[in-house]
Amino acid sequence: MGSFRDSSILIIETGRTTIRAGLGVHELLKAPAVEILARVGFRQITGESSNGIDANGKQLSNHSDVSRAQSSLPYHPNPSAKVNDYLVGTQLDEALATGQDILISWPFADGDVRDWTQAEALWKYVIFNQLQIKRTQNESPVILSMPAGLSRDLLEQVCQLFFERFNVAGFAVLERPMAQIYATGLLSGVVVDVGYEQSDISPIYDGFILQNIRTSTAIGIRDCENYLANILRSNQSVMAAASPPGFPVDAQTIQQFLLDFAQHIWKEGLVRVPSDGQTVEVPEDEGVTDIAAVLVAGKEKAVIETGMKKKATAKASAAEQARAREIEALDLVTVEFRGHSITVGKERHRFCEPLFDPILLKSIQQIPVNDTQDQPLPLQDAVGLAVRQADVDQRQYIWQGLFLTGDLGNRVKGIGIALQSRLSPYILSNPEQPTDVQPRSIRVASVPEYFAEFREKGDRLAAFLGTSIVAKIIFNESQTKSFVSKPEYDEKGPHAIIETSPALF
Questions:
Q1: Quick check: 356 pLDDT over 60?
Q2: What is the pLDDT of residues 264-298, one digit of tens each?
């Protein structure tokens, strides 16, 4: 089994809502060259079903049989559709921008493969369109990272698809949590992957995911965005931009503006999360602490700039200096968004509150929470209870690698520390009375700074980085059985992938 050129190796990270990819591994590992939403579009035809039901009322199906929590992201199966019938990437973006009637589907949203034709359309677009690989001259081996816990049958189907449809030179699969923990340089820990709709929790010990205690909680970024959007309704600067005076808009348009603005705030890195015991203090509406009053005075930009730069001139009056100090304490920022200059204060730091206290979502109509039995577990409880199910002698090692990743990583300041501070009830309560196996502390893991291309974004891109690290090793070791070569596939068929995956033995 020969090795491959580093420049030919193809890395594909497939998450529930995002696909990232890159061609080639180098001495200096590079960030993904491709990042697209893991969705496809199908042009709606008059008279065609839009909910997966055919003209005779029969349920259409083309998905895998893995039993998982169902995503609320749309899925429209169409057994008659061909791969090229689906719009992907920029084609889909352009169709939506022009107002075309498009059915959107997210084939990986359940954490497996909902629809094989849609999945193929996405991977084909990444490999042949974005990375410009030639199918007839494909000398690239592929390493694919996917969610944990996929069945053997599903992995065999993936293997078959890549060899027979994409003509790859070799194929390997890696579970995302393992890729994420590898990126931190650890072999044991607990990976907390905060996604759009839910957060996946994967305890790992000595290089293996503890599959029987892996879990998830139905709380994610979408809930945080809805929560902050609701809070921002009390900010007059935000509402003036959402519905300008003299140009009223409908409630749905206002809500979408608030959601988009909430997303813009956290993606711009303007949110930080208080640790347990700390609170985001929103001042009372009195005097100059009222944001609206500051705006009315027309001096918010000058005051904010003064506060941020911490400059006070000798000519400034005592009143002006007092105002500058007070505005700085308010933590106001001015955000440019869709042609508006919008001022927000400390309320933006409440963005992550639903992760740690989902009951707060009861006040938001977009996310009904009707029954306490159906309430999602707070993130800290889901993590703590999962690790508590590990063997006693494994827990202290797992707690030394608490790694919070996902799209919030590196963008929301302090979120890992905030989770760590809320997990203290799950470790030794009295450090002065330790036992040999009782965990004494929790260590927050992160991607090392020496990965230059991943500085300031490594925690968010950990799955891609970890996959790249593994790719560099396995495709250059001729004696290992960590991937399937084309001759092996020709001899053994799709089942060959199972022999290269230790967790499936």
A1: yes
A2: 999 999 999 987 656 555 444 433 334 444 444 45
Q: Which of 328-337, 346-355, 389-398, 482-491 has the lowest mean pLDDT?
A: 328-337
Q: Scanning the structure block, which residue is given the tokens 């089942």?
A: 495
Q: Say if strands 340-344 and 208-209 run parallel, antiparallel, or are unpaired.
A: unpaired
CA 213 to chain centre: 21
Q: For tokens 């529930």, name the residue.
A: 16
Q: Convert the pLDDT of each residue in 89-98 to its tens digit.
A: 999 999 999 9
Contact by Cβ (8 Å): 20, 32: yes
Q: DSSP 3-state assignment of 253? A: helix
Distance between CA 387 and CA 389 in Å, rounded? 5
CB 409 within 8 A of CB 462: yes
**pLDDT, tens only, 449-458:** 999 899 888 8
Long-range pairs for 427-430: beta carbons < 8 A, 24 or more residues apart: 427/399
Both tokens of residue 139? 């000398």
Query: What pLDDT sits at residue 307?
Result: 54
Q: What average pLDDT is seen over the chain?
A: 85
Please, are residues 128 and 89 in contact by the beta-carbon 8 Å criterion? no
**Exposure string (b/e) for 171-190, b if CB count within 10 Å is 16 or more?**
bbbbbbbbbbbbbbebebbb
- Residue 322 CB coordination number (10 Å): 12
Place of tokens 């005097």: 287
SS3 track for 401-455 = HEEEEECCCCCEECHHHHHHHHCHHHCCCCCCCCCCCCCCCCCECCCCCCCHHHC
Three-state DSSP class for 461? coil
Phi, psi of 23 (to 5 degrees): -115, 125
Q: Give yes or no for residue 494 having a pLDDT over 90.
A: yes
Contact 448, 184 (CB under 8 A): yes
Question: What radius of gyration, in Å, describes the C-alpha atoms of the chain?
Answer: 25
Distances 149 to 2, 69, 360, 386 between C-alpha atoms, Å: 30, 13, 31, 15
- Mean pLDDT for the stretch of residues 50-72: 47
Residue reference for tokens 């290089």: 207
